[in-house]
Amino acid sequence: MRLQMSFQLPSQGSWVFLERRKRLVKQLGDVAFVVFAGTYRPRNYAANIYRYRSDSHFLYLVGAHMPGAVLVGRGEQCEIFAEPEDPQNPLWHGDQPGWDEVVRQTGVSAVRPLSELDDALTQLGGVDKVATLPAVDPATRAWQAALLTRSWGQASVPPLATNDAALADAMVNLRMVHDSPALTYMREAAAATRAGHLAAMAQTRAGAREHVIRAALESEIMARGMAMAYGSIVTVHGEILHNEDHHHLLETGDLLLADAGAECEGWASDVTRTWPVSGKFSPTQRAIYDIVLQSQVEACDRVRSGVRYRDLHLGASLTLTRGLVELGILRGTPESLVERGAHALFFPHGLGHLIGLDVHDMEDLGDRAGYAPGRERSEQFGLCYLRLDRDLQPGMVVTIEPGFYNVPAILRDRDICGQFDADGTLNRERLAQFADVRGIRIEDDVLCTAGDPEVLTAAIVKDPAGIEAQVGAALADERR
Ligand SMILES: [Mn+2]
């Protein structure tokens, strides 16, 4: 906690945060809350650090990136405790905004030195009376647990005491329904993401490596002053779901899967597109692409108030399964195949998740955000990976991202495939004809409204003809 790095202030204006904190207090009543910004993390030695970003709960309530800071609030009163500026700091980082500036822009009553935090907590009735959320970064978590005498152990999502749980629930309720500043930034992130994906398609050519395409994508986002919301997946091995390698060579006949999104003022976008390296889908690739696209478009259109997300997932699975039965890859009645989980052989993950300040919004709280009270994860293969099972309401933004993958680890797993091989459900001979489809995913971010859904990332081409026209477009320009 010694070094004070540069920090950034919000550009929205303090009313946004005053409003959000007021809504928080409305839910929490008289309970005091203590929210940690988190400290920066060293890469290899203390002065070489990862880009700092405040923890999302802190960011939501204050809007500032302030390493090591702690927000303490109760009722109308809200203060930030921070490390006083190191006198050496301006030499290396230039003049930073003063604490008076922080007060003005975040609307808190005061910024005070961290050394006064102990006394402030005592005045609030003691550390066991306040509500807090387990910080994400381990160093902050350890300090927080000691300071507030929480015994969270090693669990990434520990069980919460009553007041802590109340704060967690209040944050979930607030952050799940996005206000207009949040949506403004998510739309900006979506626009940058569009530019990135279009550039990546345009630069795609056989003989290039994945990292060249990744660079084309991220360069558009960087050029807009934004960072990535998560580590980009740009790969010809889309069947490896969390593939973070970028060294493979692009070959004619490959599909390239890009899952990448910009982060604007902390707000995420999360988009996947899949396109043929050659600029032309093979008939087998096109057949599967059309099925995934149909299930994706249908699911986007069903993002409506009151709809249970799990039903969207099952509906998308049914459309996929119907398509796979028509192609002869699966045999049986689509409805009963989905009931038995046969679709998960090719679509093992969930249809999507909440998105906001975190790309998987509030997953730091486990399933508290994603699953409505009383709902729990299924144990069935596939359904167990569903991250979201709530009834949709206006203001929620969710991703819709069905896919089809030839995952060797699944197809050789007798526990998963055994029953489907035994009764002939899985037609492996037919499947072998689709070997040039390793992974296809199509993903958009969709805002639930009181009426029709708004696909925030709709401007990113996904129809096959549009994609084929865009792939390699930069090359065509060079030749002209
Ligand atoms: Mn996603």
Structure description:
- With 480 residues, the protein is α+β, with helices and mostly antiparallel strands.
- The chain has two domains: 14-175, Creatine Amidinohydrolase, Chain A, domain 1; 180-479, Creatinase/methionine aminopeptidase superfamily (Creatine Amidinohydrolase).
- The chain has 17 helices and 18 strands.
- The strands form six sheets. The protein has a five-stranded mixed β-sheet with strand order 6-5-4-1-7. Strands 8-11-12 form a three-stranded antiparallel β-sheet. Strands 9-10-13 form a three-stranded antiparallel β-sheet.
- The longest helix is centred in the middle third of the chain and has 24 residues, at 180-203.
- The mean pLDDT is 94.
- Bound molecules: manganese (II) ion.
- Manganese (II) ion (MN) binds next to loops.
Structure described in brief:
With 480 residues, this protein is of the alpha+beta class.
Report Rg: 24 Å
CATH classification, class level of the largest domain: Alpha Beta
Low-confidence stretches: none
Largest sheet: 5 strands, mixed
Spell out the CATH superfamily of the largest domain: Creatinase/methionine aminopeptidase superfamily
CATH topology of the largest domain: Creatine Amidinohydrolase
What is the name of the CATH architecture of the largest domain? Alpha-Beta Complex
What is the helical fraction, as a range of percent? 25-40%
Strand coverage percent: 5-15%
Trace the largest sheet across and list its strands.
Answer: 6-5-4-1-7
What is the β-strand count? Answer: 18
Set down the secondary structure blueprint.
Layout: H1 14-28, E1 33-36, E2 42-45, E3 48-49, H2 56-62, E4 70-74, E5 77-82, H3 89-93, H4 99-106, E6 110-113, H5 117-123, E7 131-132, H6 138-147, H7 162-176, H8 180-203, H9 210-222, E8 227-228, E9 233-235, E10 255-259, E11 262-264, E12 267-268, E13 272-276, H10 283-301, H11 309-326, H12 334-340, E14 397-400, E15 403-405, H13 408-411, H14 414-422, H15 428-432, E16 439-441, E17 444-447, E18 454-455, H16 464-470, H17 473-479
Parallel strand pairs: 1-7, 5-6
Antiparallel strand pairs: 1-4, 2-3, 4-5, 8-11, 9-10, 10-13, 11-12, 14-17, 15-16, 17-18
Helix pairs in contact: 1-7, 8-9, 10-11, 11-12
The structure holds manganese (II) ion.
